[in-house]
Amino acid sequence: MRASRDDIERATALRPDDPSPLVAEILRARGLGYSHEEVHALLSRVTDLAPQHFEAHSSALQDWTAKWHGSHRLAREFAEKAAAGAPPGSLLAVLPMIAWYENHVGKPGAADFLGP
Prior knowledge:
Structural class: mainly alpha
Order of helices and strands: HHHHHHH
Number of strands: 0
Number of helices: 7
Largest sheet: none
Oligomer: single chain
Radius of gyration: 15 Å
């Protein structure tokens, strides 16, 4: 993960209008334990280029889950804010459901919600 930094920086420099390397940096940030402020800054850079970038938002959401560096409350708040600011038809509308699932998967009763 540490070695990928140079490649991500090079890709960003080659195509500053492409958010893909920044999304890769969000994934790297999760693995290396970046602070929430650093992840917010990365997501902000992505959304400056592509405001509704689903992969960036879903990757950032994972950082705020309890299984990584956050809590259910942080994940839910992030997901609700992103979904609320999304235009109709945006995939960002499913982020609150993903946050719910991340909090309930593996818990008693969660399988009932998911169906047979």
